[in-house]
Amino acid sequence: MHANVDASAMRRMNRATVLKLIRDLRTTSRIDISQMTGLNKATVSNIVDELIAEQLVLEVGYGSSSGGRKPILLRFNANAAYAIGVDVQLSHMTTVVCNIRGEPVYRQVRPLALSEAQDVRPVLLEAIEEELRKAIAAAPPSPYGLLGACIALPGMVDFRRGAVYYLPSAFVGEWDILADLGRIVDIPLFLDNDANCGAWNEYMAQAMKLKNLVFVNMGLGIGAGIVIEGKLYRGRDGIAGEAGHMTVNPMGSACMCGSYGCWEEYASERGLMRYLREAGADLSALNPRESLLEQALEEAQNDNRACIRAFHSLGQYLGLGIANLLNLLNPDEVILGGSVARAATFVLPEVERVIKHRALLQNKQIPVRVGSQHAVAIGASLLAVHETLFASAMEPMPT
Predict the structure, then answer these.
(1) How far apart, in Å, do the first and last CA atoms of the chain sit?
(2) How many CB atoms lie within 10 A of CB 114?
(3) Of 123, 230, 303, 304, which residue is least crowded by CB atoms under 10 Å?
């Protein structure tokens, strides 16, 4: 027995599929869309005409023809709407406004001191609200204005509910943050883990040519955003990708998660202090009010051998964890993001050396590279676009 097909749901999916295809290709035509999607020509023509009337798609001339009428070329109108992405870290917050292709038109970095706040929630709410209002005012005029905003947080969040499970570095748990923000900001809001947002940006930036990738976000902690077959993998409860808490030393250092020997204790900024001390660096010369990593990196660039050795140690442990991820997931690529990635000159050769020893078979050849700047904030804006314009294309077809 066959269930009735929901015609409106089918049309919604077809529309999202056609729009997504036009976005993904530089130019295309109605006949090409019909051939690539399997939709009949009349359906495609009706959807395209509707998208043109809505200013989401533009006609940009004629293509070549091997015979008969030349096809009219179509292009995605990236400036038809905009979205906001916010990357929240303990020390700073980056806010961007991007068009619906992820091209930034506004960027603002705001210092934060969440680690010093007695109650993080009101401090963070006020900062996000203020930056969202600035971003809303900065968005250029467009046919559809702002589609929404996505907040990227460094911890365990539930994307579906828009709520925080736990932000370990800020010691904040069980917080319905989008409900609080929704009472003061009147645009659609989304919430995700920062590594997921970085992974989505890298996936979209490559025109989705790579279907499987891992984005490793490294700062005070470590998280991994995982794209599998073109979809973010969030797991059952939304907390997949907490790679920083896989054990690399069973009898190792205590982690703030309550366990011991977690990867992020050895391959994040927290591990760097240990390696600097072991390498004999002059810690008394460091300014406690400034970034440890930035100070150590400047010294390493000035040929401070102790700092160089410390970054090599950091790279070795970073490589150990990445080799585990390669053996587990066998992705097309691994991308490094976050503050530690700025030290790639010193850590990446060590990462690659460890991978050659510890990864299996073809995993040894999987490329590891540094991601784009502001990947998390831009990826957050692209997630807001995806959820408002394209998510229907990812839904299962009705039966």
Answers:
(1) 10
(2) 21
(3) 303
Cα(56)–Cα(54) distance, integer angstroms = 6
Residue 399 has pLDDT above 60, yes or no: no
- Give the integer Cα–Cα distance in Å for 147 and 388: 7
CB proximity list for 47: less than 8 A, separation 6 or greater: 14, 15, 18, 39
What token pair was written down for 132?
A: 């969202």
Distance of alpha carbon 153 from alpha carbon 93, whole angstroms: 10
Please provide the average confidence, as pLDDT, over all residues in the chain. 89
Q: Which amino acid is at 186?
A: D
Nearest 10 degrees: Cα torsion 179, 385, 185, 237: 10
What integer pLDDT is reported at residue 2 of this predicted model?
47
Q: How many CB atoms lie within 10 A of CB 305?
A: 12
- The tens digit of pLDDT for each residue in 149-207 reads 999 999 899 999 988 898 877 778 788 999 999 888 889 999 999 999 999 999 998 86
Give the distance, in angstroms, between the CA of residue 292 and the centroid of all CA atoms in the same chain.
25
CA distances to 132, 136, 147, 177, 179 from 184, in Å: 10, 13, 17, 11, 9
Assess contact for 287 and 330: CB atoms under 8 A.
no
Chain position carrying tokens 């010193």: 346
- The 10 Å Cβ neighbour count of residue 251 is 7
Asked whether the beta carbons of 70 and 64 are under 8 A apart, the reply is yes
Strands in 57-62's sheet, in edge-to-edge order, are 28-29, 72-76, 57-62
